[in-house]
């Protein structure tokens, strides 16, 4: 994908397992907006081999921090088992509009990270979330840095330029 290209789909959940005996699945959420499922009519499932399949949602509801989904035409455990491990995606143009200064993970992944002296620290490879502490996983060759995703450190983010400028506290870059 070109550096400034938007993805055509975004992941909002991943199917963890089957649920019950009527073809339902239980999914882990990968969205901060779980209410979005209430308005969805269809989703795209992406299999491990990259194959994609569009399915119609018969119904869906929240269950203990996860999402139960029932797809039309999927009526048995056997029918549902083939979807375990699939990513649940929607077209990118259906993404929620975020407030100013907030970003989707997929917007940050692939951004080059530089310090205020102009030194390239690497590229954001992943986002790590632990108990309200969000870290950018920045990789460069054989080094990996965990950089807190806070305004005092990430002082400039340009999604259009795929560039993040950071002002890390002294010693942070030596920890990794």
Layout of strands and helices, then pairs:
Elements: E1 9-19, E2 24-29, E3 42-46, E4 52-63, E5 66-71, H1 77-81, E6 87-91, H2 105-108, E7 112-115, E8 120-130, E9 133-140, E10 143-148, E11 154-158, E12 163-166, H3 172-175
Parallel strand pairs: 7-12
Antiparallel strand pairs: 1-2, 1-6, 2-5, 3-4, 3-6, 4-5, 7-8, 8-9, 9-10, 11-12
Q: Which class do the helix and strand fractions yield? A: mainly beta
Shape: elongated
User: End-to-end distance, in Å?
Assistant: 29 Å
Largest beta sheet: what is the strand line-up?
1-2-5-4-3-6
Total number of beta strands: 12
The parts where pLDDT drops under 50 for at least 5 residues are 1-5
Mean pLDDT: 90
Could you estimate the helical fraction of the residues in percent? under 10%
Task: Write the element-wise H/E pattern from the N-terminal end onward.
Answer: EEEEEHEHEEEEEEH
The value of Rg in angstroms is 19 Å
- Major β-sheet annotation: 6 strands, antiparallel, barrel
Question: What tags apply to this protein structure?
Answer:
six-stranded mixed β-sheet; elongated; about 180 residues; 12 strands; disordered N terminus; six-stranded antiparallel beta barrel; mainly beta; 3 helices; about 45% strand
Molecular structure report:
The chain contains three helices and twelve strands, in the order βββββαβαββββββα. The chain has helices at about 75-80, 105-110, 170-175; strands at about 10-20, 25-30, 40-45, 50-65, 65-70, 85-90, 110-115, 120-130, 135-140, 145-150, 155-160, 165. About 5% of the residues lie in helices and about 45% in strands. The strands form two sheets. The chain has a six-stranded antiparallel β-barrel. It is mainly beta and about 180 residues long.
